[in-house]
Write a structure and sequence with these properties.
41% of the residues lie in helices and 12% in strands. It has helices spanning 25-28, 30-33, 56-65, 111-114, 128-142, 173-192, 194-218, 226-240, 246-257, and strands spanning 6-12, 38-44, 70-74, 93-96, 117-120, 155-158.
Length: 265
């Protein structure tokens, strides 16, 4: 309605036993999936930590190149350690249910530290008092944390997804308040020139992550040459048998990969 093209990259947790994922996010966004200017891509986490998958950053870049000016990335949503998403987005929005902010001690680290906006949802009906209490808890907790930016203090908002009228096309004003805050944050980033620094830093971080991934791939039995696999297996067996320290084995493997180049660890 506002003339945007919206892409949604949703990450579903994968089973640690079977590796499968439900990928049901698209079925929950039926109306949005029917929109011509919307794209929804559910992806399995594949066991990756941090709430996103290896290809999420590249997928977001492709969506931008395709003309999608709003890209929403929904992480797995399992805990405080999902901070990897901050390396690929401009704004981190933390969505929390009511009464999840009782334990202030659990808010000092992790995802709360990188959040630019915190939204307490389900702020309606019988849960409204709890939602307000949770909002206050997070506001107090944020006072104990060092702001991520000198020009922006994280805000805590309430939200209800229930339509205020019988008209399903009318959304609660709290939804619009969130969008207004997102737009304000974007404008502030652009005004101070921070968005360009963020993008440069993100590209560098992704480069080093790719280097790490490529090194791991070189050691994979399915892609490495037989001689390398044999030597790596020898190191692994020595570590398992407690005949070699893991650090020493890792250093030996790196020397093999880099053809004898001294490797400091």
């Amino acid at each position: 309605e506002k003339g945007h093209k919206v892409a949604v990259l949703a990450i579903d947790p994968s089973s640690t036993r079977t590796g499968g994922s439900l990928l049901g996010d698209k079925t929950r966004m039926l109306d949005l999936s029917l929109e011509e200017n919307a794209y929804i891509r559910p992806s399995p986490s594949g066991g990756h930590l941090g709430g996103i998958v290896h290809s999420t950053s590249e997928s977001a870049t492709l969506c931008e190149a395709a003309g999608y000016d709003v890209c929403l990335i929904e992480t797995v949503g399992v805990g405080q350690s999902e901070t990897a998403v901050s390396e690929i987005v401009d704004l981190v929005l933390l969505l929390m249910p009511p009464a999840a902010g009782d334990d202030i001690q659990g808010m000092k680290k992790g995802i709360v530290e990188i959040a630019d906006l915190i939204v307490v949802n389900k702020a309606d009906g019988a849960l409204l008092p709890k939602a307000r209490h949770t909002k206050t808890d997070y506001q107090h907790a944020l006072q104990l944390l060092r702001p991520k930016y000198s020009f922006w203090n994280p805000r805590v908002l309430l939200c209800s997804s229930l339509a205020p009228t019988t008209d399903a096309n009318v959304v609660d004003k709290s939804i619009m308040e969130i969008w207004d805050n997102v737009c304000e944050f974007k404008k502030v980033l652009e005004d101070v020139g921070e968005i360009h620094r963020i993008r440069k830093s993100q590209r560098e971080q992704m480069m080093w992550k790719e280097v790490h991934s490529q090194i791991i791939s070189l050691c994979d039995e399915s892609s490495a040459d037989k001689t390398l696999v044999t030597k790596i297996n020898e190191m692994r067996d020595a570590v398992v048998a407690n005949q070699m320290l893991p650090r020493r084995a890792a250093r030996a493997i790196m020397e093999i990969l880099f053809q004898g180049t001294p490797w400091r660890t």
